[in-house]
């Protein structure tokens, strides 16, 4: 009995053991079905930002049975196919993508089959490429992923390239240099002046016909006939106009007539309608305040050196140098129409800078012992900074020992934007006599292109540039008027730049003295149509011949000429200058409230006195002259103010023509004027109202002249350049 039961339990045990199926797949009998990854880490290495890289991981079957593996991971890693079949005793492959950003990342790949789970580490480095810009016209620059650096390589000869000068086109590489063909800018129109600027390309300007000596004629250009003189409109003023007698044009001739009632005796202004004659008197409606086109808060106080520009205007932009109490100093740029802020560019050290000149090549400012140029557009970044010591570029190998300086009137721009500057210094920490030198700096980099010789003396010299001929320099301490054509010696130069000395330094610049000079004059110089007004003392032909000294003794006032502004009419026939004056006739000096500011006009033929006008707006109140400019129709625009009995100041825009104050408009409120500039048909003013500094613009009622020497510092951009 016992034995029978033992056999029965043994039989049950054998059945159970025989029926057991080991492994993960019950359909494979006794075959084993599992896997393992061949690698524990998949490293994608360095991958460019924004791109994807694919890597493969091998899965190895650990038994004779096949197995299906599920693959899962997270971004920025991705599995191409999430289910992978690994054959028995074989291998399978899982493909993984890495989508790179710009940082190192780690992830995990999770592999699962039944009860088996394996994890694989994923790593990769996303790399943001550097902006690789070629340093040369005929080089290629690419980002090397492994080193993380830009690698340059030369382009093959014949490869197309873009010449650095816009006066060349169809550039091809030759021995590492981009050589182009000269660009043709001639439009076959005799009424345009066609030229090429290396920075702008083709530049066209209307031909400016010579100004007629007859005030009733005007020069106009005809495409077929060229410049011709035509009659101005009848009744145009050609001299003083009043309701007793008026000089007006009829059929090209200036005539004096007795105006009838209703005759326009004073033109309309932006604040007042025109005046008309009535019973021999000029009757005008009451004037209102001049309304501004815009008013923009500056955020600080405007900066300028004594006699230098507070505002500059070029290509539709108004520039002002500003200092805040705690915010340092910066260059601000506003749109000329509307006063929208283009940019505020902080100066590198936060210190003050004074404006000198502006062009499409840059805004030139005076920094401590250096000149700087800021981009006129974009964010106004610093383009270049050049030390006034210029020690590395000195022709004689020497360098100034004292603090070098330049400033307003001693900086001028060529039409290409190159900077002429007259630099002065003293040796042995200021104890030695002053020395000076004329230097030409490139528009694009501020590097010295040419230099004049070291000269004895220094101080407030004046430069003037004639686009057609060259530059003029007046040094008041020795009365010299000198000329340079700015042209270095002509030598072959493969890069198209100016010729240089053999040692690679700047070329030599010569100065030729003109005539007998003008000794003892003020530091002032104006230029128009081949005539110079020098030192507020004499008119001089540009070939050096003296036309005549200014007649400052005419009249019944004691006069002390101001250095600037001196204004020259576009035709060079009339010069205007200002002076402090009083009614003393015994030669005693004028003091305090006795002083007035007058505008006096002179004929450039012989310097004789034409007219004199008090420019202060209130006859019995003291005041200050701020700015003057030539406007259309032989008119001078003046901005001046008066000190009111309560000590506050009020400013007026005035119009003066043929020795008469034609009209005036007051600026709204009580204001303190820091500076102003006439540009186009607007007057831009930096002023303080109720303790806050503003930039404001006002309509002028006409256009400022762009030819000749139209205002202080030569023009709206302060370029000290006379446009032919």
Mean pLDDT: 85
The main sheet comes to:
6 strands, mixed
* Text of the CATH class of the largest domain: Mainly Beta
CATH superfamily membership of the largest domain: YVTN repeat-like/Quinoprotein amine dehydrogenase
Low-confidence runs (pLDDT<50, min 5 residues)? Answer: 1-30, 391-401, 488-503
3D shape? elongated
Which structural class do the helices and strands define?
A: mainly beta
Which fold does the CATH topology of the largest domain refer to? Answer: Methylamine Dehydrogenase, Chain H
- Assign a percent range to the helix content: under 10%
Label the CATH architecture of the largest domain. Answer: 7 Propeller
- Helix count equals 1
Please report which band the strand proportion falls in: under 5%, 5-15%, 15-25%, 25-35%, 35-45% or over 45%.
Answer: over 45%
The tally of domains stands at 3
Quote the distance from N terminus to C terminus: 140 Å
Number of strands: 61
Round the Cα radius of gyration to an integer and report it. Answer: 40 Å
